[in-house]
Amino acid sequence: METLVNNNSVFIQLAQYEHEQVVFCQDKQAGLKAIIAIHNTVLGPAAGGTRMWAYNNEADALHDVLRLSRGMTFKNAISGLNLGGGKAVIIGDARTQKTETLFRSFGKFVESLNGKYITAEDVGISTADIEYIAMQTQHVAGKPEYMGGSGDPSPVTAYGVYMGMKAAAKKAYGSDSLQGKRILVQGVGHVGSYLVGHLVKENTKVFISDFYEDRAKEVAQKYKVEVIDKESVYDLDVDIYSPCALGATLNDNTLAKLKCSIVAGAANNQLEDEKRHGDMCKERNILYAPDFLINAGGIINVYYEIVGNYSRERVNKHAERIYDYTQNIFATAETDNINTHQAALQLALKRIEEMGRLKMSR
Ligand code: NAD
Questions:
Q1: For position 3, what pLDDT does the model report?
Q2: Residues catalogued as catalytic
C-alpha cells in the first residue's frame, strides 16, 4: 500500500503550524480554487483577509495560507483584539481572473463556516470584490463605506507601519524623527503607497520599487520619489528597508546584502525562517520591527467594523498605540536577550494562554 504520510502531507503541515481547520473550496464553473485556513479561535472567530495570487502551484498556496493564518492569530492577540487567526487564498491572477461569480462563490464557502471565519481584503482584493463576497455572506468586513463598512483598511495599516517605523527610529537613532533618512519601500500597492505619503511629509529620501513598472511610475510621479529596479533593492544603501510586497524577503541571501539599520514594513511573514532570520537580524544590528505587530492597523480597522460603533478616530487612536507596543517589544527583546520577533511572539502567546484559561474558568 502507498505510504500516505510524507513531509508535504497536509496533516503534517497542519500539525506543525497547529491549525484547527483547513477548508479547500472548489467551484469549477465559477473558476474558483480557494483555501480557507482557521488557525486558532481561542480569542474569538478567526479573522483575516483573503489574498488572490497566481501561485506557481497548489502546495505554495497551501503553505502561504497556513503561514498567513498563523500570523493573524499572533497579530490579533498582540493588538488586544478579541479575534482568532484565519486567512484565505484564492488561486488566480487578480489582474485578469476576477469575476462576480468567482467572488460570490467564495462568499458562499465563507458563509458555510457560520461565522467561525470572518474575511476581509488582502493582496489582490479590493472593496469592490468584498461587495460581491458580502452578497453571499454576512461574515465579511472591510466593506465599502457606503455599505456601512470600514472601507479600505490600507490607510490604517500604513499609519500603523509608520508608527512602528518611528518607534524603531527612536530605538536605533535616539529620535523618532525620520527627517533625512533614506528609506526604501518595496511594493507600492495599497499600503506601500499610503506609507510613502506619510514618509515624504517628513522630508525623507524615499526610494520605491514595484513588480509592476506602471504602478511604480504612477506613485513616483505622485510623490516625487525615485524608482529603483526591483533586482537591485537589496544592494541599495539605505537606513530603513520597508518590505510592503510579499513575505520571506528576510532570508540568507538578502540579509547578507542588506545595509539598513531598521526593517519596518507591512508585508506579512517577512522572516523566511522566524528563529534563524530573526537571530540574523539581531546579530547584524538590524532592528527588526515585527511584521505582525506593526502591520495590525488594517485588522484593527476591520475589528471596529465587526464589533460595531465604528469610528475612524477610535481606529486611529488604537493604531497609534502601535508606537508604544513596538517600543515595549524592543525593551523586552533587550532584557530577555532574544530577537524582536521572539519577543512579540512571546507576548501574543501569553495573551492567548491567559484568555484561554479565563474562558475555561467559571
Ligand atoms: P497590494 O497588492 O495592493 O500591493 C502589493 C504590491 O507589491 C503590488 O503593487 C505588487 O505589484 C508589488 N509586488 C509584488 N511582488 C513584488 C516584488 N517582488 N518586488 C516589488 N514589488 C512587488 O497589497 P497591499 O494591500 O498593499 O499589501 C502589501 C503587503 O502588506 C502584503 O504582504 C499584505 O499581506 C500586507 N498587509 C496588508 C494589509 C492591508 O491593509 N492591505 C494589512 C496587513 C498586511
A1: 40
A2: 87
Is position 44 within any domain?
A: yes
- DSSP conformational letter for 250: B
Dist. CA 6 → ligand 1 center (Å): 32
> Whole-angstrom Cα distance, residue 295 to residue 162?
9
Share of residues in the chain with pLDDT > 90 (%): 90
Q: What is the pLDDT of residue 272?
A: 96
pTM: 0.93
Q: What share of the chain is helix, strand, coil (3-state, %, to 5)?
A: 50, 15, 35
Does ligand 1 have an atom closer than 6 angstroms to the CB of 291? no
Does 74 reside within a domain? no
pLDDT of residue 10: 84
Return the best residue to mutate from 157, 253, 263, 293 for the ligand 1 pocket (most ligand atoms within 8 A of CB).
157
Domain count, the chain: 2
Q: How crowded is residue 234: how many other Cβ atoms within 10 Å of its Cβ?
A: 17
User: Could you count the other beta carbons within 10 Å of the beta carbon of residue 102?
Assistant: 22
Rounded CA gap, 276 and 343, in Å? Answer: 14
Read off the C-alpha cell for 223: 510623490
Name the residue of 191, 253, 295 to mutate for ligand 1: max ligand atoms within 8 A of Cβ: 191
Supply 193's cell numbers: 503607497
Question: The C-alpha cell of 54 is what?
Answer: 497566481
| Ligand 1 atom with the shortest distance to the CA of 267 | 32
Q: Tell me, what CATH number does 224's domain have? A: 3.40.50.720
Q: What parts of the chain have a pLDDT lower than 70?
A: 1-8, 362
Q: Is the CB of 79 under 6 A from ligand 1?
A: no
Q: Is there a contact between 220 and 227 (Cβ–Cβ < 8 Å)? A: yes
Neighbours of 150 (CB within 10 A): 25
Domain range for 160 is: 154-295+325-348
Helix (H, G, I), strand (E, B) or coil at 80: coil
* pLDDT score of 246: 85
Annotate 51-88 with b (16+ C-beta within 10 A) or e (fewer).
Answer: bbbebeeeeebbbbbbbbbbbbbbbbbbbebebbbbbb
**pLDDT at 4 (0 to 100):** 41
